[in-house]
Amino acid sequence: MVARLFQSVPRPLRGWVLPALLLALWWAVLHWQWTTSPLLVSPLQVWHKAVELMSGGEAWRALGASLRRDLIGLAIGASAGLLFGAALGLSRWTERLFGPSFHTLKQISLFAWLPLISLWFGLGDPAKVALIALASFFPVVLNTFEGIRATPPDLVEVARVLRFSRAHLLTRVVLPAAAPAIFTGLHLGLIYAWLATLGAEYLMVAGPGIGSLLVDGRDHFWMDQVLFGVILVGLVGITLNSLAAIVERRALAWRGRSAGLY
């Protein structure tokens, strides 16, 4: 019965079924007073708080500050990750020299780096950007390295028989073969960077940002602001994830066309 009802929903809207059900349950819990806890406020209160913060500009300033930190940190971490991952994947000597240290460091929890980062960069924006860059660095390195190393040996052998130069071998064989893994690393780096953005804003010196919006709501017991902040974090996360998926599909569209030739 439930499966039939779900299938009757138009395909583009099926992803909104669960959020709609959760919203209905949230409203029902408060409407029929299944709980009187002050920790749960009504959806209408959250909506009014959202309108207040957005019309006053506070929410937009917080969102802009968080996205700026996130994108700067992602650009630094992903760029360094691509270069280092490519160096590990293309050079056995580099892997033997730096690989053991990298695989050791990647096991350290991100927030275990906070004491060192705060000593090196302070507790302001540079420290937050450094933490975000570190969060995106490791998945990009790992996936770039594994993607390059997974290049089919047959393709490399054919390229050598055809006397490809090293530059042509890299740009026409290795990188196209590694592209799906590289984009997976970038996608993961984007996700981890956004998570680190909120963690950095929550744990470091207060400043404009969604994390600070959540902290202010918690400190003043404004649960409508806290819930609005949580919803905003989720919406930004799914938007970034969707944009990354669109870019990845378009960048790798040639793979589908190539597969259709056989």
Helical coverage, percent range: over 70%
Mean pLDDT: 84
Computed Rg: 23 Å
Number of domains: 1
Count up the helices. 12
The arrangement of helices and strands along the chain is HHHHHHHHHHHH
Portion in beta strands? under 5%
Report the CATH topology name: MetI-like fold
Structural features, described:
The protein has one domain (57-251): MetI-like (MetI-like fold), CATH 1.10.3720.10. Helix 4 packs across helix 5 (92-105), helix 4 (58-90) crosses helix 10 (210-219) and helix 9 packs antiparallel against helix 11 (223-251). The two termini are 42 Å apart. It is an all-alpha fold. It has twelve helices and no strands.
Features:
mainly alpha, MetI-like fold, globular
Detail the topology: elements first, then pairings:
Layout (H helix, E strand, L loop, with lengths): L1 H7 L8 H15 L11 H13 L2 H33 L1 H14 L8 H8 L3 H25 L3 H9 L4 H38 L6 H10 L3 H29 L1 H7 L3
Helix pairs in contact: 3-11, 4-5, 4-7, 4-9, 4-10, 6-7, 7-9, 9-10, 9-11, 10-11
In short:
This protein has helices spanning about 1-10, 15-30, 45-55, 60-90, 90-105, 115-120, 125-150, 155-160, 165-205, 210-220, 225-250, 255-260. By secondary structure, the chain is mainly α.
